[in-house]
Amino acid sequence: MELTKHSLNLFFATLFTAFFLFTISSALKDGETCVNDKSCDSGSQCGACNGNVTELPKCIRIMPHNPVSKVRGLPFNQYSWLTTHNSFARVGHRSDTGAVLLAPMNQQDSVTAQLEAYLTSGKEYKIHVLGVLNFSVDHQNGVRGLMLDMYDFEDDIWLCHSFHGRCFNYTAFQPAINVLKEVEAFLEANPTEIVTIIIEDYVTTQSGLTKIFKASGLGKYWFPVSRMPSNGSDWPTVESMIEDNQRLVVFTSKSSKEASEGIAYVWRYLVENQYGTDGMKNGYCPNRAESAAMNSTSRSLVLFNHFPDTPDLTESCNHNSAPLVTMMNTCHDAAGKRWPNFISVDFYKRSDGEGPRAAVDFANGQLVCGCNNVDSCRAKMRFGDCNATEGSPAPAPAIGASTSTTAAGRGFKKRFADSDGQQLQLGWLKWTGNGIIVEVIGVLLLVN
Ligand SMILES: *[C@@H]1O[C@H](CO)[C@@H](O)[C@H](O)[C@H]1NC(C)=O
Ligand SMILES: *[C@@H]1O[C@H](CO)[C@@H](O)[C@H](O)[C@H]1NC(C)=O
Ligand SMILES: *[C@@H]1O[C@H](CO)[C@@H](O)[C@H](O)[C@H]1NC(C)=O
Ligand SMILES: *[C@@H]1O[C@H](CO)[C@@H](O)[C@H](O)[C@H]1NC(C)=O
Ligand SMILES: *[C@@H]1O[C@H](CO)[C@@H](O)[C@H](O)[C@H]1NC(C)=O
Ligand SMILES: *[C@@H]1O[C@H](CO)[C@@H](O)[C@H](O)[C@H]1NC(C)=O
After folding, report:
1. Atom of ligand 6 at shortest distance to CA of 384?
2. What is the Cα gyration radius of the chain?
3. Is 56 touching ligand 1 by the criterion CB < 6 Å?
4. What is the atom index within ligand 3 of the atom nearest the CA of 132?
5. Contact 48, 32 (CB under 8 A)
6. Where are its TM segments located (predicted)?
7. Which of 168, 178, 167, 143 is nearest to 62 (CA)?
8. Where are the domains of the chain?
9. What confidence tens digit (pLDDT) does each residue in 291-302 have?
10. CATH architecture of 62-417
């Protein structure tokens, strides 16, 4: 018996080591040449812009660094958030009416996947024999701003991509409450995250929006209009928004709803540049018609749109790369030297590597600590004192303390980061060719 127990321990020790070696070697960093998404670190995908055969695919980080995990005490208007334009218009979506959709599609994944964060900070995952893994994981894709078009339809409110303010079966995606429930689940699971919803509002039903927000369970996270500065002064700090659990900021494009339903009229609080193709002309950043001038400092938030009139999956890779950052600089100057709080794009995952993620990290670096990447920001540092860390490789997002937990955390982060976890497990099975590994993973899944 002794011998058996001993060999069993030895066996598990070996297995444990093999497991960590595997997970360490499996995670390729941002910028490294890769073969597929699963070979990249979590929050990254493998790719290159189309049409360039000389370029090898590399790991491209999708997920911005979480600025709030760096510094929490700043006003809401001193952070920048990755924002998806028509977040609900997902490629391949079938209309819930059953009709074939004849509407443009702007994104590649669901709102849940865009917000994605399956693991919460400091949660403990116990493995019987191997001990305790303790990982705290940031958001995975990190979208925090959603632009949603809402219409009256079928005695309900639907997410629709339509014209003349009317929704049709072939332009209707799904009832808005479905997506609001996804946001609710995210806020519930992530008590330090803040989400902003910007509604292109065609709803005329009285209290229609109020009704679906209440029914979705989002009412309890509502950030009240009374706390929003309408004269250009600073917003409350994100820390206070988190403490008060007022972590949902909602804007409507219908001014009357501020008085009637307590939903903030968007252009009273932010300026935004022209959307669509007209907003993508080099060196030029006019405000959209409904917005005050970009340099109106009586609005404390700045929204930066950068997408063409017609969403284009192939071209988005280029649009979301260098031109995005160039135009962000143009709009920064036009907005009275203000960096955008919301960076809104189509197909947010597509870029050559320096895309929406890089733009958000850059804007947050500038806003939070005066550096070129928010990853350089440290609590209590002097603004602009970037010397210590600037240029050093970006570490993986906050993971548990010791080396071994970091390695394991990364391995499992990968498993959770993938929207199709089952498939990834199979990948491990194939790769290791070891049924026992799968058994260990099984134990993990059972007890976490
Ligand atoms: C293709 O990729 C190479 C290497 O990254 C780059 O030098 C070249 O400019 C790219 N060509 C095009 C047309 O984007
Ligand atoms: C539109 O879809 C609804 C189901 O949501 C269906 O009852 C109705 O007949 C459809 N209308 C048309 C014109 O296809
Ligand atoms: C796990 O992490 C959390 C937060 O980082 C910490 O509070 C907790 O004590 C840790 N647990 C162990 C067993 O290290
Ligand atoms: C803006 O309004 C707030 C109260 O809502 C006030 O405290 C602040 O002084 C005002 N700022 C300016 C610049 O008028
Ligand atoms: C704001 O921008 C407008 C152009 O949109 C310009 O005419 C005006 O001088 C600017 N105001 C300030 C204070 O810079
Ligand atoms: C940062 O580095 C530059 C030169 O590399 C130096 O002149 C400057 O004083 C440094 N700033 C701080 C705050 O250390």
Report:
1. 13
2. 23
3. no
4. 13
5. no
6. none
7. 143
8. 28-61, 62-417, 422-448
9. 999 999 999 999
10. Alpha-Beta Barrel (3.20)
